[in-house]
């Protein structure tokens, strides 16, 4: 089969312009290193935005995909399949959940969660139990419903009218939630750490107070752990670190290490509202995705991986602090585990992309969370030498930007 040569210019020719990808075109990855078409090598601190938690081309994950590819790719949901049931059993064994719904993405997992919350409210409390409360600066996906629940108005502009019955309160401000919650509230939706909103962890006691308010008003607590889950913070899911159990949890991103898969986890009591025919997905729970995810879960849910996240986090933070001691560029370094954000000082607010571009030229792939925060979400098993090499590249990039 003849393959046409691919350049960045081809993107502008054939793709809808909702993205603006970088000029370099990655073609190969291994571990925490990536190579582009020209053979340039990069240290990867992005993890595909918290997705490739086991790095690129992990041999066990590749083997799981190849093995399942020789067996069965797809079944309609008229049937079930062995990988889906094995994965669901492992997820329920690890977590509070009794039941699982599989989707293709995090947005679809959230869509299912929000629909289930409304259905549960309707079934148990009547037509008026439908309001959903979320938090400002949160991010929950790009479907019309999930972008409505997300707390960033810029993502809703031009798509109105959006679904009604959704409101937003201040994160880490329990009084703001107290003023908004009522007997009409069917669910409160929160990220344990705001990801796209700037890598902002829940303050001590905040999640517990949200849980208590939900109980008081018979509202479900939904944790969006799409970015924080599957080992990212050192626990398999961050709710375990917080000591707060949600009623519904959504997960995706690292669950498939790059193979598209998402899941909604919940209890028997809540799941009962999704009776036959109320929700579905053509590809959700497909054998390929579930076989890959089962291997990912087995590898990450182990002392070898989870037990080293905090040490790697400490190395990242110490390297960032050393850079800051030299250049005084960060207002704050925050986050948990290997989801970290370095907020730029005020005079550099809005200019995060300059540091991304400079880092790329120095051989480092890095992210932003909004225009003011440099975000790192690397492989959970990134070698220490790669951390140090990436930080050396970041320091060179910062030096260049500041000298320009």
Automatic annotation (TrEMBL):
N6-(pyridoxal phosphate)lysine PTM positions: 253
Cellular location(s): Cytoplasm
Positions bound to pyridoxal 5'-phosphate: 106-107, 139, 224-227, 282
One example of a Gene Ontology biological process annotation: L-arginine biosynthetic process
Main location: cytoplasm
One example GO MF annotation: pyridoxal phosphate binding
CDD domains, alphabetized: OAT_like
UniProt pathway: Amino-acid biosynthesis; L-arginine biosynthesis; N(2)-acetyl-L-ornithine from L-glutamate: step 4/4
Quaternary structure, from the entry: Homodimer.
Remaining remarks: May also have succinyldiaminopimelate aminotransferase activity, thus carrying out the corresponding step in lysine biosynthesis.
Name of the featured protein: Acetylornithine aminotransferase
Source organism per UniProt: Neptunomonas phycophila
Lineage: Bacteria, Pseudomonadati, Pseudomonadota, Gammaproteobacteria, Oceanospirillales
């Amino acid at each position: 089969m003849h393959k046409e040569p691919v350049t960045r210019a081809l993107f502008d020719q054939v793709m809808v312009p909702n993205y603006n990808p970088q000029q370099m075109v990655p073609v190969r990855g291994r571990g925490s290193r990536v190579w582009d078409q020209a053979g340039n090598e990069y240290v990867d601190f992005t993890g595909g935005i918290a997705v490739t938690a086991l790095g690129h081309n992990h041999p066990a994950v590749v083997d799981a995909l190849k093995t399942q590819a020789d067996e069965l790719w797809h079944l309609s949901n008229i049937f079930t399949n062995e990988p889906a049931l094995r994965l669901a059993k492992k997820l329920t064994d690890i977590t509070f959940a009794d039941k699982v719904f599989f989707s293709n993405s995090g947005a679809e997992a959230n869509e299912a969660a929000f629909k289930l919350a409304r259905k549960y409210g309707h079934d148990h409390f009547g037509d008026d139990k439908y309001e959903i409360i979320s938090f400002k600066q949160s991010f929950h996906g790009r479907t019309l419903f999930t972008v409505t629940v997300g707390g960033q108005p810029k993502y809703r502009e031009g798509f109105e009218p959006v679904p009604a019955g959704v409101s937003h309160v201040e994160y880490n401000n329990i009084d703001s939630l107290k003023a908004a919650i009522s007997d009409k509230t069917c669910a409160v939706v929160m990220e344990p750490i705001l990801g796209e909103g700037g890598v902002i962890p829940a303050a001590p006691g905040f999640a517990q107070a949200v849980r208590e308010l939900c109980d008081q008003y018979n509202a479900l607590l939904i944790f969006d752990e799409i970015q924080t889950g599957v080992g990212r913070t050192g626990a398999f899911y961050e709710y375990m670190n917080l000591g707060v159990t949600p009623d519904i949890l959504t997960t995706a991103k690292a669950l498939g290490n790059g193979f598209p898969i998402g899941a909604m986890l919940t209890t028997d009591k809540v799941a009962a509202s999704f009776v036959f025919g109320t929700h579905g997905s053509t590809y959700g729970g497909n054998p390929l995705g579930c076989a890959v995810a089962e291997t990912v879960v087995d590898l990450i849910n182990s002392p070898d991986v989870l037990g080293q996240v905090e040490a790697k986090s400490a190395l990242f933070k110490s390297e960032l602090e050393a850079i800051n001691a030299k250049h005084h560029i960060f207002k704050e370094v925050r986050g948990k585990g290997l989801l970290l954000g370095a907020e730029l000082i005020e005079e550099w607010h809005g200019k995060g992309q300059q540091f991304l571009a400079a880092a790329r030229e120095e051989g480092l792939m890095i992210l932003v969370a909004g225009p003011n925060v440099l975000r790192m979400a690397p492989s959970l098993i990134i070698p220490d030498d790669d951390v140090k090499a990436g930080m050396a590249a970041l320091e060179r990039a910062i030096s260049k930007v500041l000298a320009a």
